[in-house]
Design brief:
- 29% of the residues lie in helices and 20% in strands.
- It has 8 helices and 13 strands.
- Helix 4 packs across helix 5.
């Protein structure tokens, strides 16, 4: 009997969430990411921080796909800016690990799904910049950081996002517009040259990016892992990502 091999999807394990330390990587790396990948047919594995570069590279080379999840702010030092007064918490080891992994994935054409902080990491890794605080740096913006109030559950729908037609993201979602959750106070300001914009909100904020010629490199600013139980486009996105990773198995 031939045993099926599931594509191995690496997910970076963070030190904590919103400044709180946790007992283990799995406790932070919310089971929603792990379940979304497993539900799409992938085998999720956590990538620890603080690894020597050669060990991190050895882990990376065993992966069939990479997921960069949500988390704390990306340090403005990574894109040559001074710290804004509304800048939040930073984790330098997390920045180092994820920026390196993002560049390796792009260089190796490894399927990559970048979510929330992940889309910001991808943009910075490829030479782009960020709004350090949307509310103060983009006054015309709608409310994007709804999760700062605990009254909003993770699957709360905040606003519609328009998807670019003929984009890989549109094909993956099977939709020209989706209504998403939203809990970020940073976002893409200057888009990296290697990326194209594939989604935005009515206020002009970029909410989706991709590299068209890649096997599959997609970033979204919202949290589809919190929506897979109730939302077909979110499930399709994870299926497309894991499907691209499966081709490399």
């Amino acid at each position: 009997m031939i045993q099926q091999r599931y594509p191995l999807i690496g997910i970076t394990a963070h030190n904590g969430i919103h400044g709180r330390k946790v007992k283990s990587a799995i406790q932070f790396q919310m089971v929603t990411y792990l379940k979304a990948v497993a539900g799409a047919g992938g085998a999720p594995v956590l990538i620890p921080l603080n690894l020597p570069e050669e060990i991190l590279r050895a882990v990376f080379e065993r992966l069939d796909g990479l997921l960069l999840p949500g988390g704390v702010d990306v340090s403005p030092a990574a894109y040559g800016e001074k710290t804004h007064e509304k800048f939040g918490r930073v984790d330098e080891e997390l920045d180092r690990t994820e920026l390196e992994l993002a560049r390796w994935a792009v260089s190796a054409d490894l399927p990559l799904l970048a979510i929330c902080r992940g889309i910001q990491v991808l943009n910075v890794a490829l030479g782009g910049t960020l709004y350090q605080d949307i509310e103060s740096q983009m006054p015309q913006a709608m409310e994007h950081h709804r999760f700062r109030s605990r009254d909003y559950p993770p699957n709360d729908r905040a606003h519609p996002v328009k998807i670019a037609p003929q984009s890989r993201l549109s094909a993956a979602l099977g939709a020209a517009q989706v209504t998403t959750n939203s809990r970020h106070h940073q976002a893409i300001k200057v888009l990296a040259p290697a990326l194209i914009e594939t989604a935005r909100t009515a206020d002009g904020l970029i909410e989706g990016v991709e590299i068209p010629e890649a096997r599959l490199i997609i970033g979204v600013q919202w949290h589809p892992e919190n929506l897979v139980d109730e939302d077909l486009p979110s499930r399709r996105l994870f299926k497309t990502f894991v499907g691209a990773a499966r081709k490399s198995v």
